[in-house]
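pipeline stage [seq->struct] | target=SAM-dependent MTase RsmB/NOP-type domain-containing protein | organism=Physcomitrium patens | residues=353
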Amino acid sequence: MASQFLQLATTGSDCEHSGISAGQASGAAVAALEISSGDHVLDLCAAPGAKLCMMAESLGDSGSLTAVDIARPRLAACRTMLLKYGLGRRTRLYLGDGTTFSLLPLNGGSKLCSASAGDDRSDDEDIGDGGFHKNPRMERKTVYGEWRSGRTRQEKRSAKRAKYLGIPLQTGVDGMPELFFYGIEAGVVGMKVADVARVCQDSNEASFSGYDKVLVDAECTHDGSLRHIVKYNEWGWDTFERRFLNEERIASITSLQLRLLSNGFRLLNPGGTLVYSTCSFTRDQNEGVVERFLASHDDAELQEVEPARQWPCRPGGLPHTLRFDPVTSHTSGLFIAKLTKLESNLLNKVVVG
């Protein structure tokens, strides 16, 4: 099987009539979201950035995209891609933990930004680098100016601190999400710091001012990725076995995947769409995680991925789930589950409560 993976990865052969190449199956996860203009979209695991760019392009002339990643260098790569292809105008990037991220979309967009600045904006301090002031009195008056390229003051301080401590600083200051980048139309410019950092306090709040579409392309063992298989052919298959066939590693990563999925669903609007995906072949990381999630969320329901009727893929182990693989699709491995948050169940819960 390994030699078959290698051949497909190196030839980059396309699926006949599909236009999906060996390295492009992951784009199906974005297509499954069916993003439309005006949607507020959340990407909980943004790096390395290809799907992020696809989602940004799908937004059109309205809506917003909020993206989160826990690793600073990987998030910097996402920012570079957005700027390179001119796709960051409606995007916010946050350095933070996707399992606990709680910031809601800025539904007002650029019009609200202008209104919030008001006539007294001259009294406010303009910060264009995503930094935060520690003085609470100053923070209330601080507004965001247009984002400026180059390393921000916050990044420089974080890098200096990490160097002093001798460890990489992976998350924002004090564990809070750090605003890493924002586009001119992301709803940030002109807003006060406290208004941008609007935290979801409970599930009811997220249910009425959350995200329309959420992508949880979860961290996984990458055992279905052709690019990773090529690397392990060079590094040695003992490394592959150590990383992917270790029971403790699998248990740890499935726990992470379940927490990412649960948090993404918490921030989803009623009637909204969430897509959970991995590039693993294992059932534990795919159907297993979804089954565990559904067992504790009676307001969640699996949905058909309608565009997949034309895709070269096969059914997964749960209704409406999908799997791509080198044999069926001539692509890397990919699992997709599309879920929606049921409005009726949610309303019943509120009434009963």
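stage status: PASS
auto-comment: Confidence is low (pLDDT under 50) at residues 1-23, 108-124, 130-140. The two ends are 53 Å apart (CA to CA).
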